[in-house]
């Protein structure tokens, strides 16, 4: 097959859903008008709402620029690893197979999905930087010019994040891990710098010149994006085929309502430690802990991602004790959800124990005993990580040792999350009654109980974090007592679900 796309483009342009040039111009007109009519007033209202005494101290903190750069570098590391699972330059499996079997240059086909995918980080970063800039301008802490340059720096940073995402799809396993590790180390070192580089250097209230950093980031983002488009021909066919099939299967499972199964489809197969012995001598607790550790080491990217997310979640939970109002509760919600997600990378043994329900007890342990023994190592590791994250935040904030609730809150929430993961693993299939149509004058409302059933685990995790944060205001004994009660309640619900599955 030749590389001439003229015939293909002619047929493609004649499809029934094809957009004409007038349609594209009208779409651009609608987008521009929507930004002027809706986005600008909403942005101004949001800045006015956020310019309040419980939000401004966080935005005006001396370490705010360094934290901004740290978050952007950590996000770049995450995007690099995300490229190994689902890259930005991706098309349907049929078109991927057709492309791989033809002589067409890949850049001629993949530039469109890449451009669409880059809109995701671009919109996200620009919206966040615009909200921060609008809040600081409303308070009078920043000028309009400084805010505008900060948004420009955000746009450049979003392009660099898109390039990191594509880099994760282009690079091999070792180079991808090396790049992600370098970005994580750079993110950790930025907190110790007297002046933040990168996006933090363009922070509206910094003493440096934000214009210089904004132009540097925008120029670097444009160059990195152009280089990424030029490197699309280097994408390996095996990577494209594997990712397109995985993503197609994931989206299909999501449409059936099985969100947990869809999340499992995104997990990469083990890539290291195949010769590590998972079987050793007793006692059983150490034997199962060894099996869990070997499982973690066989997927190093997943383990590192879980560790980083757990540390950041603990830092957010610990920082919530220093905040008030919606900012504090927002940190609790985000920290609890992130700690729940981090726990998901450590509980493969628990899931395996639940899957053995009804099978012969070949090794002498029932499914319930296996789940119990597989819960020890994840609970200990997540508790240690939560303690480290909380202690780091306490030291960075300059709080004394009397602020023990900053460490106790994430550490006490960690075992609750692990036992909650056991409860979620024993969930079973969706009841057929939830799929029954519910016609109302407003339409079919059957999707509401389906969404509630799918999201009960994350909602319960966030609620647990909010309850413990509230009890922390009464003192550490109340917090520890509440954590013990929540852990026992999660264990009871897990046991009840496992009994129901055994029938």
Describe this structure in words.
- With 503 residues, the protein is an all-alpha fold.
- It has 2 domains: 6-237, no CATH class; 284-502.
- The protein has helices at 6-13, 21-50, 56-59, 64-85, 93-100, 106-139, 144-170, 173-190, 210-230, 237-255, 259-265, 284-297, 300-320, 325-343, 348-355, 367-374, 376-396, 405-425, 447-454, 456-472, 476-502; strands spanning 439-440, 443-444.
- Strands 1-2 form a two-stranded antiparallel sheet.
- Strand 1 (439-440) and strand 2 form a beta hairpin.
- Helix 15 (348-355) packs antiparallel against helix 16 (367-374) and helix 17 runs antiparallel to helix 18.
Number of strands: 2
> Structural class from helices and strands?
mainly alpha
- Please write the string of helix (H) and strand (E) elements: HHHHHHHHHHHHHHHHHHEEHHH
Strand order of the largest sheet: 1-2
What is the count of structural domains? 2
Q: Hey, roughly how much beta strand do the residues contain?
A: under 5%
Which terms summarize this structure?
2 domains, about 500 residues, mainly alpha, 21 helices, two-stranded antiparallel ribbon
Q: Can you summarize this structure?
A:
With 503 residues, the chain is mostly helical. Helix content is 72%, strand content 1%.
Topology:
Blueprint: H1 6-13, H2 21-50, H3 56-59, H4 64-85, H5 93-100, H6 106-139, H7 144-170, H8 173-190, H9 210-230, H10 237-255, H11 259-265, H12 284-297, H13 300-320, H14 325-343, H15 348-355, H16 367-374, H17 376-396, H18 405-425, E1 439-440, E2 443-444, H19 447-454, H20 456-472, H21 476-502
Antiparallel strand pairs: 1-2
């Amino acid at each position: 097959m030749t590389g001439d796309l003229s015939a293909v483009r002619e047929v493609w342009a004649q499809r029934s859903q094809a957009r004409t040039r007038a349609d594209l111009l009208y779409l651009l007109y609608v987008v521009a008008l929507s930004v002027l009519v809706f986005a600008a007033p909403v942005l101004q209202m949001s800045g006015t709402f956020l310019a309040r005494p419980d939000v401004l101290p966080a935005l005006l903190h001396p370490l705010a620029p360094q934290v901004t750069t740290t978050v952007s570098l950590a996000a770049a590391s995450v995007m690099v690893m995300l490229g190994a699972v689902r890259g930005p330059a991706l098309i349907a499996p049929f078109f991927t197979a057709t492309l791989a079997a033809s002589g067409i240059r890949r850049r001629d086909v993949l530039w469109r999905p890449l451009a669409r995918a880059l809109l995701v980080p671009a919109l996200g970063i620009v919206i966040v930087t615009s909200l921060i800039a609008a809040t600081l301008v409303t308070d009078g802490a920043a000028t309009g010019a400084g805010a505008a340059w900060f948004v420009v720096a955000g746009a450049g940073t979003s392009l660099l994040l898109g390039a990191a995402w594509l880099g994760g799809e282009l690079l091999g396993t070792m180079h991808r891990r090396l790049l992600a590790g370098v970005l994580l180390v750079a993110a950790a070192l930025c907190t110790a710098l007297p002046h933040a580089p990168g996006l933090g250097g363009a922070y509206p209230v910094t003493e440096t010149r934000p214009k210089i950093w904004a132009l540097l980031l925008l120029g670097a983002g444009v160059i990195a994006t152009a280089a990424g488009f030029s490197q699309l021909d280097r994408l390996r066919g095996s990577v494209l085929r594997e990712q397109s099939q995985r993503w197609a299967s994931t989206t299909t499972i999501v449409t059936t309502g099985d969100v947990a199964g869809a999340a499992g489809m995104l997990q990469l197969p083990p890539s290291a430690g195949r010769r590590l012995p998972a079987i050793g001598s007793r006692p059983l607790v150490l034997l199962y802990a060894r099996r869990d550790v070997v499982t973690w080491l066989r997927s190093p990217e997943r383990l590192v991602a879980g560790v980083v997310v757990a540390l950041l979640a603990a830092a957010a939970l610990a920082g919530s004790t220093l905040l008030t109002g919606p900012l504090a509760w927002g940190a609790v919600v985000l920290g609890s959800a992130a700690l729940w997600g981090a726990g998901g990378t450590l509980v493969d043994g628990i899931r395996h124990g639940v899957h053995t329900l009804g099978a012969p007890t070949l090794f002498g342990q029932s499914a319930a005993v296996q789940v119990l023994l597989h819960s020890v190592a994840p609970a200990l590791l997540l508790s240690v990580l939560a303690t480290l994250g909380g202690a780091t935040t306490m030291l960075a904030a300059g709080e004394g040792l009397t602020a023990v609730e900053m460490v106790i809150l994430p550490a006490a929430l960690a075992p609750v999350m692990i036992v909650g993961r056991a409860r979620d693993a024993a969930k079973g299939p969706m009841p057929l009654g939830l799929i029954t149509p519910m016609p109302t004058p407003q339409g079919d409302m059957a999707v509401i109980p389906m969404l509630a059933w799918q999201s009960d685990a994350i909602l319960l995790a966030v609620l647990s974090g909010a309850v413990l944060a509230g009890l922390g205001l009464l003192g550490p004994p109340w917090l520890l007592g509440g954590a013990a009660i929540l852990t026992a309640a999660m264990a009871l619900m897990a046991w009840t679900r496992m009994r129901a599955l055994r029938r």
